[in-house]
Design a protein that fits this description.
The complex is a heterodimer of chains A (about 325) and B (about 300). Chain A has about 325 residues and is an alpha/beta fold. Chain A has a domain at about 100-175. Chain A has eleven helices and twelve strands. Chain A has helices spanning about 50-55, 85-90, 100-105, 110-125, 130-140, 145-150, 160-170, 190-205, 220-225, 240-245, 250-260, and strands at about 5-20, 20-35, 40, 65-75, 75-80, 95-100, 180, 210-215, 225-230, 235-240, 310, 315-320. Chain A has an eight-stranded mixed beta sheet, sandwiched between helices. Chain A has a four-stranded antiparallel beta sheet with strand order 2-1-4-5. The longest helix of chain A has 17 residues, at about 190-205. The radius of gyration of chain A is 21 Å and the shape is globular. The relative contact order of chain A is 0.14. Chain B is built from twelve helices and no strands. Chain B is globular, with a radius of gyration of 24 Å. The termini of chain B are close together. Classes of the chains: A alpha/beta (about 325), B mainly alpha (about 300). The interface between A and B is medium-sized, with 30 and 22 residues. Bound molecules: adenosine-5'-diphosphate, iron/sulfur cluster and magnesium ion. Iron/sulfur cluster (SF4) binds near residues 251, 292 and 322 of chain A.
Chain lengths: ~325, ~300
């Protein structure tokens, strides 16, 4: 398959106005997503992963939030410039989302059928009977047993894993070009997690959907993604093909993340490695590398200037002074 | 579902029985009787009267006689309004109270929900502030103040509404307006505030975020995804509201001289009219319990998570 870019995010900035000051939740994020690619977006909680993707969907609560700059090019068209009506033809149709908590993401007062069919009818203009047929097909596709009968159940009659399958069915029902999965397994049992990830992987391959997989868990990324972006304090600090990232992490933060993955093969090594210190407060962050208080390799320059993005061999990029020749 | 309704319906009987029993006991414990007079009456006459009303029988026998009567719809004779049975008095006056109470509940709910939704959807705009100021006013000013003030303005100064009278005559509906507003104001206000906060909460919920991410229009989101969930707290409040309205109507009926059950509430207590007090208590309780029953049923229809077991 040719590597055609389907989504390009350029220097996206989303800020929130709060009582404590301006929260620069996303501050200059850029990345590309190719057709059919699965891109991981990894980072600690609060690093701006969700805000990045809610900005792409233009679902940031305004106020207090505001997309203050950047472009989001979907097939070359800047969707940040579209009005609400045009945007609603993209949401759920060309770009879909699934969320962390399948317990609350479905409306508890409406039948599964209602929630599935309304999306299908909205974007595909099918009549009720056709849409219902399609809805049952989708439920079968995501592995809901007895879909013909279960479609009329309410969300509370499903387990967490089954609900996430329903969410996936809704998200994929209009055959979107892009699926954004925001920590889709974080709220689920470990045994169910793998099943859901496999399902997303299988279906995205089958339907040729590009996936942005948001997670704080590098383990999820390893099994699923082609490329990975690592986020820290509202910016992307490293970008690499997944195998290269694990083999030779460049950014000290990435290195810390990889070392903190629990390994089943290394027994009895005692305490888990974890990165010391707290993620930075993104309010009134001074000009510096935001990771410097936690970085073992921090240098003088790190406390004064944000590191430039350095391109490395093999389609890799890193934002760290260690790799900049002329500092 | 039918089983659930039947079960909840039968569940009302013990409650009513307890209320009846407690009311009966309190009535007999309270000092003074219906035929006590300032001036002593001859013992023979006293005995005669007591025998007529079975007051000479042992208490337990009186109690069962009374219960038996209720089951047949007979609340006994009034001690004060001679020649009239309590059942007659109640069935002549109750419809007026029910009419007023039900209209008040409907008005409070309709306008309260409407104001609450408008306020929530226009949060922190003048619409929101206006609606909520009215609501604060409505909650803080009691019905017995609103009633006379309305009367002063609309009946006496502006002369566009009649001062008294109740649903008779060509302009009958006009007589309903002031009592209705006075009685429903504070419930309108509570419902408006409840709806507003509940709509705001649902709007921020994950499932509304999902609906947005699916590309639904704001109107569809409000109608299909927000309202149902947001109205549940309002529905469960309706039972309480109706009890309050029924009690409040005692005062309003006095102010506007409405021939409802409310006026007997005070009078029959002052007269120690045992049977009448009992009748009024039982009827009021039944109305309130029945309303709560209906609310429960409505709620279980709206929220699929309620199991009918
Ligand atoms: N509605 C909001 N108001 C204020 N701050 C917000 C809001 N939503 C997110 N933020 C802030 O934006 C930052 C990034 O959040 P988020 O993107 O949710 O992180 P995560 O990487 O865990 O998904 C956090 O500091 C968070 O506090
Ligand atoms: S720029 Fe400096 S502080 Fe930041 S990660 Fe690189 S070495 Fe560490
Ligand atoms: Mg998040």
């Amino acid at each position: 398959m040719e590597n055609k870019t389907i989504l390009e995010v350029k220097d996206l900035k989303t800020y929130f106005r709060t009582d404590a000051g301006i929260v620069k939740a996303v501050d200059g994020v850029s990345f590309r997503l190719d057709k059919g690619e699965t891109l991981g977006l990894v980072g600690e909680s609060g690093s701006g992963k969700s805000v990045t993707n809610m900005s792409i969907m233009k679902l940031i609560p305004m106020p207090p939030g505001k997309i203050v700059g950047g472009e989001v090019l979907l097939d070359g068209v800047d969707i940040l410039k579209l009005n609400e009506k045009e945007m609603s033809r993209i949401r759920g149709n060309r770009i879909s989302m699934i969320f962390q908590d399948p317990m609350t993401a479905l409306n508890p007062y409406l039948r599964i059928s209602t929630q599935l069919i309304e999306t299908i009818r909205l974007h595909q203009g099918l009549d009720k009977a056709e849409a219902r047929k399609k809805a049952i097909e989708m439920l079968k596709l995501v592995g809901i047993p007895a879909a013909e009968r279960r479609i009329d159940a309410y969300p509370h009659q499903f387990s967490g894993g089954m609900r996430q399958r329903v969410m996936i069915a809704i998200a994929l029902s209009c055959n979107p070009e892009i699926l954004i999965a925001d920590e889709p397994t974080t709220a689920l049992d470990v045994t169910i997690q793998a099943q859901i990830l496999d399902l997303i992987k299988d279906l995205s391959e089958k339907l040729e959907t590009a996936v942005i997989m948001i997670t704080h868990d590098l383990g999820v990324v390893a099994g699923m993604c082609d490329n990975v972006c690592v986020m820290y304090a509202g910016r992307i600090v490293e970008r690499a093909p997944v195998d290269d990232l694990f083999e030779s992490p460049k950014h000290p933060y990435t290195n810390g993340l990889i070392q903190s993955i629990p390994r089943l093969d290394e027994k009895g090594s005692g305490r888990l490695f974890s990165i010391d210190g707290q993620p930075p407060n993104v309010i009134d962050l001074p000009e510096c590398c935001p990771f410097h208080p936690r970085c073992e390799k921090a240098m003088d320059v790190c406390t004064r200037k944000y590191p430039p993005v350095v391109s490395l061999e093999g389609k890799r990029e890193v934002a760290c002074w260690l790799y900049e020749e002329n500092k | 579902m039918t089983k659930y309704i039947l079960k909840r319906f039968l569940g009302m009987i013990p409650t009513l029985l307890i209320i009846t029993t407690v009311a009966f006991i309190i009535m007999r414990i309270a000092p003074g009787g219906p035929f006590d007079r300032e001036r002593a009456i001859p013992p023979a006459v006293q005995a005669n009267i007591e025998a007529k009303y079975h007051l000479d029988e042992p208490l337990i026998k009186q109690y069962f006689r009374y219960l038996g009567g209720i089951i047949r719809g007979d609340f006994g004779p009034s001690y004060k309004y001679k020649d009239q049975t309590v059942t007659d008095l109640i069935s002549n006056s109750l419809p007026h109270s029910l009419l007023l109470g039900t209209l008040a509940l409907m008005a409070a709910t309709f306008f309260g929900v409407l104001a609450g939704i408008i306020a929530a959807l226009n949060q922190n705009t003048w619409l929101d502030y206006t609606a909520m100021s009215i609501a604060v006013f409505g909650v803080s000013v009691p019905a017995f103040v609103i009633g006379p003030v309305l009367m002063l303005i609309f009946a006496m100064k502006l002369k566009i509404l009649p001062t008294s009278g109740w649903i008779t005559g060509p302009d009958g509906w006009k007589t309903v307006l002031m009592p209705l507003i006075a009685l429903s104001m504070s419930y309108f206000a509570s419902i408006a505030r409840l709806s507003r906060s509940s709509v705001l909460e649902v709007i921020r919920s994950d499932y509304v975020r999902t609906a947005k991410a699916k590309g639904l229009s704001p109107t569809m989101i409000i109608l299909k995804h927000v309202l149902k969930g947001a109205m549940l707290p309002v529905v469960s409040y309706l039972g309480i509201a109706y009890s309050g309205i029924i009690t409040g109507s005692v005062v309003i009926e006095q102010i506007f001289r409405i021939p409802g059950l409310g006026r007997f509430f005070v009078q029959s207590s002052l007269n120690r009219d045992y049977t009448m007090i009992m009748g009024v208590i039982i009827v009021y309780s039944t109305v309130v319990i029945l309303m709560n029953f209906l609310v429960d049923i409505l709620y279980s229809f709206l929220d699929p998570r309620i199991s009918y077991q």
